[in-house]
Amino acid sequence: MTKSFVIALALAGLADSALAASAVNLDSEPRTIIVTEGGNKQEIALSAGETVEFCAGGCFVTMPNGDREALTGGETIEISGGAGKIR
Question: For the segment 34-62, what is each residue's pLDDT rounded down to a tens digit?
Answer without folding.
Answer: 999 999 999 999 999 999 999 988 999 99
